[in-house]
Design brief:
This protein has 483 residues and is an alpha+beta fold. The protein has 3 domains: 3-157 and 454-481, Triger factor/SurA peptide-binding fold (Orthogonal Bundle); 171-204 and 330-427, no CATH class; 212-324. It is 51% helix and 17% strand. It has helices spanning 3-21, 23-26, 52-61, 71-94, 100-108, 121-130, 135-156, 163-174, 185-191, 196-205, 224-228, 235-249, 254-261, 288-296, 330-357, 363-373, 393-399, 438-464, 471-481; strands at residues 32-33, 41-45, 48-51, 114-115, 118-119, 176-183, 211-222, 268-271, 303-308, 311-324, 378-382, 406-411, 418-427, 467-469. The strands form 4 sheets. It has a 4-stranded mixed β-sheet with strand order 1-14-2-3. The radius of gyration is 28 Å and the shape is globular. It starts with a helix and ends with a helix.
């Protein structure tokens, strides 16, 4: 029953969490040691105690049910939790209010409560019922979030960036760069070759990694033809969708629903999160995004109604199991070779980066490397930071963070693409006020200024409030998620 709440969290709560709540705490970390002996208290802010349970509720609210939470992620959640509480205190300190009339208007424009682009009281009531939350509690929480948003608008809303600042923003994105690149792929092809015993050894050490979760489910697709014997998504169809939704809330099983609406319920699938069967063949009748939604359901949610791109499905989970793959499986073997290759690449590249950081790898060494490894140098002219004709956007962003006449190494997250690059020439550019794009870069520079102001606000918050973290309680929370 948590599925709809998580969907709503993604559209409203989580956005405000990432863009608002986390800001006042993440940059400067946790405060002094906790001196109290209460194991049920996670943090004390200005003598106000916050319980471990309230922190656990916060984590549950912003994570999926089957998400594995690592120890460092628990610390990130604590930073967000404390940031949330600090903003509440600042809202109260500044006396920021939201009238009932304004609150009502804000709720009514949320797309999750709309049907046919209009606010639907039925959708709103369904949301409250599914998540077992009273309207008063929901509206109080929503009001708190909107006040926090108003607080940050209050802090940064009056910033007016200068023309110089707008030009600096424009130049950082649109300056032209002439670079020379060596593709490490040409180097690694000669160096990466793994014997069978090394592949077997890696598998034995990482066996648990090659266990895969499968769910066996019954799926019924609901269409106008199956529910109303028609072709249109009309009121009669949506009325029956609502009836099915309420039956699920009441705890009815798939057999009950199928019997009432004369639906077939004999299609059973066993699949992984990618929509593949036991033999890793794609189940073409099940869209990949539906498979991912199925795996977001907890085992407690035995039956659910899922909407995907104007299609409706009833999903009943029969069982969840783990299957151990062996090293002869093509997918497993490919992954092992990939990981062994990444390790070789990482070590090789790290040595070059170490030399670059010590200024012992220069332009001369760049050309010498090309000769020694017998790999070509390619010249590229980048028109701007969005010019991804030759390289991925993430690699270009990295290139644009370095100065002229500099040798650098850039690679993607998985070490699939790795390049040694010499930045030969940077051509700066400027923008005039009468340009059609001036307003765009005006807003970009304004947002950058607001970010810098919020960093200053962080320092102000740090001095204003005393924060004591109970690290013993924090360690217990970490253990709870990693048993």
């Amino acid at each position: 029953m948590l599925g709809p709440f998580r969907k709503f969290s993604g559209s409203i709560y989580a956005k405000i969490l990432m863009a608002v709540i986390i800001i006042p705490f993440v940059f400067w970390g946790m405060g002094s040691n906790f001196f109290g002996g209460n194991k049920n208290v996670i943090v004390v802010i200005e003598k106000e105690k916050y319980s471990v349970q309230s922190f656990l509720n916060f984590i549950q609210r912003f994570s999926t049910s089957n998400q594995k939470i690592e120890p460092e992620q628990v610390e990130q959640f604590l930073s967000s939790f404390i940031g949330d509480k600090l903003l509440e205190k600042e809202v109260n300190h500044l006396g920021i209010n939201l009238s009932n009339k304004s609150l009502s208007k804000l709720i009514k424009v949320q797309k999750d409560f709309k049907r046919e682009n209009k606010f639907s009281r039925v959708e709103y009531e369904k949301f409250l019922l599914k998540n077992n939350i009273h309207a008063t509690d929901f509206e109080a929480n929503f009001s708190k979030l909107q006040k926090k948003k108003q607080l940050l608008n209050f802090i940064g809303g009056g910033i007016i960036p200068s023309k110089y600042f707008v030009n600096a923003t424009y130049n950082s994105i649109n300056q032209k760069r002439d670079i020379e690149i060596i593709n490490f792929k040409d180097v690694f092809e000669k160096k990466i070759n793994f014997p069978e015993n090394e592949i077997k050894s890696y598998f034995e050490k990482n066996k648990d990694k090659y266990k895969e979760t499968y769910k066996t489910v019954k799926i019924i697709e609901l269409s106008p033809k199956s529910l109303t014997n028609g072709e249109e998504f009309n009121d009669a169809f949506f009325k029956k969708i609502d009836e099915i939704d309420y039956m699920i809330i009441e705890g009815k099983n798939l057999l009950n629903i199928a019997a009432k609406f004369n639906l077939r319920s004999d299609e059973v699938f066993t699949l992984n999160e990618l929509g593949e069967d036991i033999n890793l063949n794609s189940i073409k009748r099940i869209p990949i995004d539906l498979s991912k939604n199925i795996f977001l359901l907890s085992d407690l949610e035995k039956i659910s109604l899922i909407e995907k791109k104007d299609k409706y499905f009833i999903i009943e989970i029969i069982k969840t199991e783990e299957i151990q793959r062996d090293s002869n499986n093509n997918k497993v073997r490919k992954d092992i070779l990939l990981n062994l290759g990444v390790e070789i690449k990482r070590k090789f590249i790290s040595k070059i980066i170490a030399k670059i950081n010590k200024n012992t790898f220069t332009k001369f060494d760049f050309y010498n490397f090309s000769k020694e490894e017998n790999v070509p140098i390619k010249k590229i002219s980048l028109k701007n930071q969005n010019d991804d004709r030759e390289l991925k956007k993430e690699l270009i962003n990295h290139i644009y963070s370095f100065p002229e006449k500099k040798v650098i190494v850039v690679n993607d997250v998985n070490f699939k693409e790795n390049f040694l690059i010499y930045i030969d020439l940077i051509k700066n550019v400027s923008i005039e006020k009468n340009s059609d794009e001036y307003d765009k870069y005006y807003m970009l520079s304004k947002n950058q200024a607001i970010d810098e102001l919020l960093n200053t606000y962080d320092a102000y918050i740090k001095k204003r409030y005393e924060i004591d973290v109970n690290y013993q309680a924090l360690d217990k929370v970490k253990s709870r998620f990693n048993q």
